[in-house]
Amino acid sequence: MTETEFENIISDILDVIENMSDDWYERLNVDVDAHREANVLNLLFDNKTPVVINSQTPMRELWVAAPSGGFHYRLEAERWIDSRGGPDLEAALSAIFSDATGHPIVFTLNG
User: Fold this and answer.
1) pTM of the model
2) The domain spanning residue 94 has which CATH number?
């Protein structure tokens, strides 16, 4: 995978997350301040929970930093797998977003 292809995939993932965070206010009355620069997305939930999601292009990884820890994901067979043996990206973000919003959130890459 080229650098450009990787960055495009990451951009698409961040788009999905931004769109979901917009929906949380409408559906759940949860305010999320989303700030994006290139392929770094900073989320600050109304309870002051920070989550940072960013690409690490040289390693072809997506990193997630949240109160529950730091996670590194690699795309393997069309799934984002935690390089340290934790849950995959969808499961991890579902748990992180559920904790941050106080509501059950199911994150999927398909939006």
Assistant:
1) 0.91
2) 3.30.920.10
Name 51's Cβ contacts closer than 8 Å, sequence gap at least 6.
42, 43, 45, 64, 65, 66, 96, 97, 100
Number of domains into which the chain is organized: 1
Kindly report, residue by residue over 20-63, the tens digit of the pLDDT.
998 888 888 999 999 999 899 999 999 999 999 999 999 999 99
Separation between Cα atoms, residue 108 and residue 59, nearest integer Å = 23
State the amino acid at position 70 in one-letter form.
Answer: G
